Amino acid sequence: MTAAYENHQGPVQEAVGDVVLNRLAELATEFEAEHIASTARSISERVSEGRFYVACIGQFKRGKSTLLNALIGYSVLPTAVVPVTAVPTIVRHGERLSARVRFQNAAWTDIPVEAVEEYVSEEKNPENAKGVAGVEIFVPSQLLNTGMCLVDTPGIGSVFAGNTAATQAFIPHIDAAIVVIGTDPPLSGDELQLVEAISKEVHDLVFVLNKADRADASERTAAVEFSRRVLETRLKRQVSKIFEISALDRLEQKGTDLEWGQLVRALEDLVRNSGRSLVRQATDRGIRRAAKQLLAVLKEERDALERPLEESERRIARLRKTLAESEVRRQDLGILLTAEQQRLSGIFEERRKVFLKESQASTHGELIRCLSSLAASRNGPAYRRNVNHLAQEIAHERLAPWLESEGAFAGEEFRRTAKRFVELANEFLHRLGETGVPGMEELPDDLGSDQGLTVRSQFYFNVIERVAAPASPFLFIWDLVGGGLGLRGGIVRDAQEFLDELLEVNSSRVQSDVDERLHESRKKLETEIKGVLRQASTVADRALARARTVQAAGTLGVQAALARIDAVQSELRGINPSPGSTRAM
After folding, report:
1. What's the CATH code, domain 52-258?
2. pTM higher than 0.70, yes or no?
3. Following DSSP, what letter does each residue of 542-554 receive, concatenated?
4. Residues 193-250: tens digit of each pLDDT
5. Longest dimension (CA), the chain
6. Domain boundaries, given as residue ranges, for the chain
7. What are 527-549's pLDDT values in tens digits?
8. C-beta of residue 127 within 8 angstroms of C-beta of residue 162
9. Which of 92, 198, 227, 300 could pair with 149 as two cysteines, CB 3.0-4.6 Å apart?
């Protein structure tokens, strides 16, 4: 079947590829590898329909969702100033606006388009806690009517660790990509790694500098040249064009066109010139990946059949000993991390005191300087309200950057303290892999060495109810009289005290917010490690059960099972297309 597949071109090759993918799905089902079967059927479906995926990738807050909304002409993807997308979302052509969602091991369910945010946004479905396997939105867009599907991916490098993992997991399904960069910074290390990984699988990459309207011409030129130089060095290929656009301006029809028309024409050319070859490449990759995964499953089955039960039990006993040791050390390290968090809380309190001392003196002066901007009024109560509003604005402007700096400081401290935790977990993952128990390849290779804060800030500025009116009727009367006489010194002194209170209360809330983020991030990291250990224990139980089942089948049963594995392995090697059948990268 390999020759039959590789020697055909165009629609015939695609039809043969569809048959091969469905056959792989059948074999995967036979060996209870439903995750492989599901993926093969999904690729088969989109290949038979001539659909290919163009993923929009980049760091969080690059404006990827806004860009896709602007390309299709419909605001169907949620957008915000915080990291939004939690799961990859596919936008494809449809006769009318509609959407559907699929959960793990479940069928597609139709949902209203306006409900998409409930399933794909970080706010409504943080780190995909709802277990969404896929979301598709159908739009009557001219750009998509010949097979191109746009994919909104979670941002790389956000504080939500699961987001980066979700995008990494989607890489095998990407046929082409729109890489969205910015001016500050143009490219992060995580983005470069992702683009490099994708470029090894796909050739067509479209580069976009979004939010170009926020930088002047010299800044844009510097960002484009820097990005081109870095990308060409990393990818070892020429980057001919980086389109400078403003997706938000385009979506809001503000008239700032920049190079928007050129970007759209580039995507139309991609469909016209490369659409069919992208579908064929998707078929090739799908077949190679499914066949490779199935061969690994068959190897595991063969090992279970040929290995003596006693040896399996020894390996599993070794695994359980490693798991027990890891749990004891995890608990010991957890106690140390709790103490470290308490130490950091003390540091944050000292930093808060320094902030208050530095801020209170300077904000009093700033308040006095800004009083001249207030409209002259002989109405004392109105003047008090205006001065208090001004105090709130000054406090908010002073606290916002401090909140950001404290969050960054906390993130670095958390990385430092969590590093020991992650190193311990990765050490045990390595040891678990060495036990030789079948199924350990299902565990992650490591948990990632750079674990930042994984919990979003919940801070909001407390305005304190003292703006609408004076605290007492007597003060109200005094403001009326004093305002008429031009006596406003008491109002200003009260506003300075109010400003001090705003800084005191809200800086304390900033400290509490950072403390809580540290606490919750540590808990999430511990939960992740516990989850890996539980998964390893489940794999061990399954492996032992499989070994006992095989032994119970007797010699004839084992021989028959091995013969079936031999036949399927031979078939898989026959239908696995060579890497050379895909266009050279």
Report:
1. 3.40.50.300
2. no
3. HHHHHHHHHHHHH
4. 878 888 887 889 999 998 888 888 888 888 899 989 999 998 888 988 999 998 888 8
5. 108
6. 52-258, 309-573
7. 777 777 777 677 667 666 766 77
8. yes
9. 92
